[in-house]
Specification:
Layout lengths: L34 H7 L3 E3 L6 H4 L14 E4 L3 H13 L4 E4 L14 E4 L6 E3 L4 E3 L5 H8 L16 H7 L6 H4 L6 E7 L5 E5 L4 H7 L9 E7 L6 E9 L4 H14 L4 E9 L9 E8 L3 H15 L5 E8 H8 L27 E7 L5 H12 L6 E9 L21 E9 L5 H19 L19 H6 L3 H11 L14
Parallel strand pairs: 2-4, 3-4
Antiparallel strand pairs: 1-2, 5-6, 6-9, 7-8, 7-9, 10-12, 10-13, 11-12, 11-15, 14-16, 15-16
Helix pairs in contact: 8-9, 8-11, 11-12
This protein binds flavin-adenine dinucleotide.
The site of flavin-adenine dinucleotide (FAD) has 37 residues, from strand 3, helix 5 and strand 9.
Length: about 500
């Protein structure tokens, strides 16, 4: 389960809206494609619009892209299945997109052509020093599989996000400060290229591709069929949740940024300035949460420091010490088994509704918001009241181990970032979505203009912002020319393309 409106840059509701993005306009090619030939070559299965499974198979994790109708969805069971799909799509000039967890916030893991689904390539194989995971392994399953071995790999605030998109885009989570980004823990990857060739890349082999896969963004260079990751070995953690009333929000924002930026690497966390319902008169809350990869006593001392920086006691302060696994499950809101924590329809016991995320984006900021910007950011949160929507201004603590990697060491360039700060808006009731969508977008836009007045700040490809005028620089900075060279070498015809793809 993804943490809901109460925490995280993405506040996910559970209501529906369908719209077809412009890049996914329909084609009339479907009838001429000999799908049976592809089907015969697959170990997995192929779902066509005439199949009863199609309505579910075409869906992403987010309901807002339900109107996109792929010509087919190939559930790949093996790396060779991916190869077959790539060669078939090439031969028939079909647009393709890989899909692992399907959480891309811009809908980039669907297409009107062939969706190459990787959810069945979901193995988790621990070794002595590394772990091999399939691109479609969900964070909650990776957590469960590695827990008995005392290992984990980075995960974000959503239990069903998969390495396919998370690691290739960077991968921010509660352990970013102590263990680096998801991409920082990649040791090697197997990749199916646009010509069907399979390469195994690492620091020593196809090293430029390996470099690009660590933050260059999914769907650009090839389809990763396996990630080899260097796990962290965090045993017990001390979790925390504190809340302050809204009239202390400016103090909490100032104090939290100072506190996390100067805290130990072991400290991970988020600050959420949250309106659970943006109706007139409702007061937002200032919520601080996360965990310390360390003992509870040390956490209590750190929290005392935070409270003293804020200058007032919180209205609630909860701490606990438990295993990393238990803390992540509670952070995700998963009270049952890993299987129950899947999206509905994924397996017979899955209970989590698919997510409606209307708008969510942010910037990777090196400096804390100053007093004036904080006031403006809080005012933006309070403006644009709209009953039935939740509005959130949130900050994720970065820095630590992620900040000690050189900007050109991986494709993830924004190594001086200490905060990922952004706005998200969503809906509490399905009926409000159509009428309120434009207002929600405007609200996020207005907030983002406070944080990034020229729309030119450092952005994160895993939270795409389609309004960035110079997205190449915002996402990739000085690394962009090198990413283009990798693209030209490994995908010279731009077979893999989507909005904001690395250009040739
Ligand atoms: C509710 C929610 C919470 C989130 N929380 C966080 C968070 O805490 N931290 C964070 O860093 N991010 C977070 N994200 C963003 C998330 O990391 C990205 O959306 C990520 O890309 C999702 O991975 P996926 O495999 O589920 O996505 P998909 O939608 O399947 O893929 C994302 C992109 O990668 C491509 N792709 C997929 N699989 C492969 C592959 N095997 N090889 C190459 N390309 C591939 C797709 O074509 C698409 O372009 C969140 C998103 C949501 C919706």
């Amino acid at each position: 389960m993804c943490s809901g409106p109460e925490r995280g840059l993405v506040s996910a509701g559970t209501v529906g809206l369908s719209f077809a993005p412009s890049w996914a306009a329909g084609t009339d090619r479907a009838a001429r494609v000999p799908w049976d030939r592809l089907e015969r070559r697959l170990r997995g299965s192929l779902v066509l619009p005439t199949d009863p499974d199609y309505p579910r198979a075409r869906h992403l994790a987010l309901l807002q892209f339900d109107a996109v109708s792929p010509q087919a969805i190939a559930y790949c069971a093996t790396e060779n299945d991916i190869r077959e799909c790539v060669l078939f799509a090439r031969h028939h000039a079909l647009p393709v997109t890989p899909r692992s967890g399907g959480h891309n916030l811009a809908g980039w893991s669907t297409t009107t052509g062939l969706v190459i689904d990787l959810s069945r390539i979901a193995h988790v194989t621990p070794g002595a020093d590394t772990v091999r995971v399939g691109p479609g392994a969900q964070a909650v399953d990776i957590l469960a599989a590695l827990a008995p071995h005392g290992m984990q790999i980075p995960a974000g605030l959503c239990a069903t996000v998969c390495p396919g998109g998370f690691v290739t885009g960077g991968g921010i989570g509660m352990t970013t400060r102590v263990g680096g980004l998801g991409a920082d823990r990649l040791v090697s990857a197997r990749v199916v290229l646009a010509d069907g060739q399979v390469v195994h890349c690492s620091e020593d082999r196809h090293s430029e591709l390996f470099w690009a896969l660590r933050g260059g963004g999914g769907g650009n260079f090839g389809i990763v069929s396996e990630f080899e990751m260097r796990p962290t070995r965090i045993q017990r953690v001390a979790g925390y949740n504190l809340a302050w009333p809204w009239d202390r929000a400016a103090d909490v924002t100032r104090a939290w940024q100072e506190w996390t930026a100067n805290g130990p690497d072991a400290l991970g966390g988020t600050l959420d300035l949250l309106l659970t319902d943006a109706a007139e008169g409702v007061r937002p809350l200032a919520l601080v949460g996360g965990f310390l990869a360390g003992p509870r006593a040390e956490l209590e001392t750190l929290l005392d420091q935070l409270c003293s920086l804020v200058g007032s006691a919180p209205t609630s302060r909860e701490t606990r010490e438990q295993s990393y696994q238990a803390e992540m499950m509670s952070l995700w809101g998963c009270s049952g088994t890993a299987a129950e924590c899947h999206l509905e329809g994924d397996n017979p016991v899955a209970t989590v509704p698919r997510h409606e995320v209307i708008v969510a984006t942010g910037r990777l900021l090196a400096d804390p918001l100053g007093t004036t910007d904080t006031e403006a950011a809080l005012a933006a949160l309070e403006s644009g009241r709209h009953a039935g929507q939740f509005h959130n201004l949130s900050m994720y603590a970065l820095g630590g181990a992620a900040g000690r990697v050189r900007p050109d060491e991986t494709a993830f360039v924004h190594r001086s970032a200490r905060f990922f700060t952004g706005y998200s808006a969503g809906f509490l009731h399905a009926d409000d979505v159509r009428a309120g969508r434009a207002a929600a977008e405007r609200w996020v836009d207005d907030g983002m203009l406070v944080i990034d007045p020229h729309r030119s700040g450092p952005a994160y490809i895993n939270f795409p912002d389609l309004k960035l005028p110079n997205w190449q620089t915002s996402y990739y900075g000085a690394n962009y020319p090198r990413l283009r060279r990798v693209k030209r070498h490994y995908d010279p015809d731009a077979f893999f393309h989507r909005p904001q793809s690395i250009e040739l």
